[in-house]
Specification:
about 170 residues; mainly alpha; Glutaredoxin; 3-stranded mixed β-sheet; 3 strands
Amino acid sequence: IMLHSTLALSLLLIAVTSNLAMAIKKEKRAPQTLSRGWGDEIMWVQTYEEGLYQAKKSNKPLMVIHHLEDCQYCQALKKAFAENEEIQEMAQNNFIMLNLMHETTDKNLSPDGQYVPRIMFVDPSLTVRADITGRYSNRLYTYEPQDMMFLIENMKKALRLIQTEL
């Protein structure tokens, strides 16, 4: 009888430890693949269509980031974007967020060409905001790592437009 209870106890211990190990594994969330390094705490939408739907439904602006994996400018921008607390906070709370590694069929999202990186805003009335641009006249919607304060201002501008226009 002693052997029997020892065996039962060890089985119980094994069950408890493996459940614990699984719980610990679950707790450490795998990075969300849709973030692609732009911010794992942000809820990213998967497609432009889903972004438009969510923007309309939630009355939040949609922020679209066009980028490519093998583009060094995109990588540098991504790092600055992901490390900026104010941008991350606003992106989490006030925007519908989408990052794309392919072009959309919406020509309004490439008014001055299909270059990367570029960041554009679409308001909840589903209007692409051609009036919210970066600092460069040759690529209106491009931002560089040192432009994060400028991007923050543009994010605030996108939020203000909703209150005043819509």
